[in-house]
Amino acid sequence: MHYSYLLSVSLLTVFALAAPQGGIFPAASDLSKSVSATSTTTTATATITSSSIVPADTSIANDPVVIGQLALAAKAVDRINIIPQDASFKFDFDNPPEKTKNEGKGGHTVRADRQSFPPLIGTGVSMSLGFLGPCGFNTPHTHPRSSEINIVVQGSLETEFTLENGARTVRNTLNTRQMTVFPQGALHTEFNPNCDDAIFVAGFASEDPGVQQVAQSFFGFDQDVVEAAIGNDFTFEGKDVEPFRSLIPANVALGVERCLKKCGIN
What's the rounded Cα separation, in Å, for the pair 237 and 227? Predict the structure, then answer.
C-alpha cells in the first residue's frame, strides 16, 4: 500500500513538471487554434487535389495503329509503355469517345471495349453503362462472346433472359444495388417500368463481347427467308415484311404499352 502511494505521487509530479504553463490539458483557446489550423490545412489540400484532376484522354480511342500495337505487344509492361498518358487509362461515360454511344427514343447505352478504350486490351474485360428513360426498353439481344453481370445503380429494371431452345424464361425485378447474370449467348432484355430514369452497369468477361439485337437482325434477312421462318405459325404475307421493318425501333426503344399509359407518354 505504501509503495503504491509513493508510485502514484511520483507519476503525478512527473506529469506536472512536464506539462506547459496552464496545466496538463490545453486551454480552450489553444484547442480552437488547433482546430482552425487543421481546417485550413484540409481546405488547402482539397483545393490542390481538385485542381490536379485531369480529364480522360480519348486520343487513342478507335485508333487502329495503337490498337494493333497493343494487341501484338509481347508483355503486359510493353502495353503500359505504349500508352504514355495516365489519363488514357480513364474512361468518362458522361463524355465518351466517338462511336461508343448507342441512342434510341428510350435512352442510350455507352460501351467501353477494346476499341473505344484500348487500355482494356490484354485484360479480358469490358463494361457498358445503360441509361433508360421512363418506360425505356433495351430490346432483346445477345452477347455472343461473353456472359454479362448487370447491376442497377439507379431506379429499377425488369429483366428477362432465355438461354436456348427448351430452357425456361427467367424473369426478375431488380431494384437499386441488385444484380443479375445473363449467360453467354442468352437472349435477354432490360426494361424500365417506372416514370423516372434508370441506370445500370453491365460487366463482361471479354474485351469484345459483341451485341446482336434480335428483331433488327432477324428482319434484316431476305424477305423470303423472313416469310418462310414465321409463315408456318401465323399468316404473314410477303408484302407486309417491308413496312414492318420500318416499324422496328432502334435500340434503346420506348415501350411497354402499360408503362406508357401509366406515365402519360404518347
Answer: 7
Query: Residue 16, exposed/middle/buried by CB under 10 A (0-12, 13-18, 19+)?
Result: exposed
d(CA 206, CA 121): 10
DSSP reduced 3-state for 226: helix
CA–CA separation, 101 and 72 (whole Å): 27
Sign of CA dihedral 60, 63, 67, 70: negative
Q: Cell numbers of 89, please?
A: 487509362
Grid cell for residue 74:
509481347
DSSP state, residue 55 = P
The confidence score (pLDDT) of residue 50 equals: 53
Alpha carbon distance 31, 214 (integer Å): 68
* Pairing, β 212-213 against β 101-104: unpaired
Which phi and psi (to 5°) does residue 206 adopt?
Answer: -160, 145
Cα distance between residue 2 and residue 33, in whole Å: 43
CA quadruple 215, 217, 223, 228: dihedral, nearest 10: -70
**Residues of the chain where predicted confidence (pLDDT) is lower than 50:** 1-29, 31-46, 48, 234-238
- Do residues 160 and 171 make contact, with C-beta atoms less than 8 angstroms apart? yes
Q: Model confidence over 64-110: pLDDT tens digits?
A: 999 999 999 999 999 999 999 999 999 999 999 998 999 888 999 99
Distance of CA 197 to the CA centre of its chain: 15
Write out pLDDT tens, residues 174-199.
999 999 999 999 999 999 999 999 99
Q: Has this prediction a pTM greater than 0.85? A: no
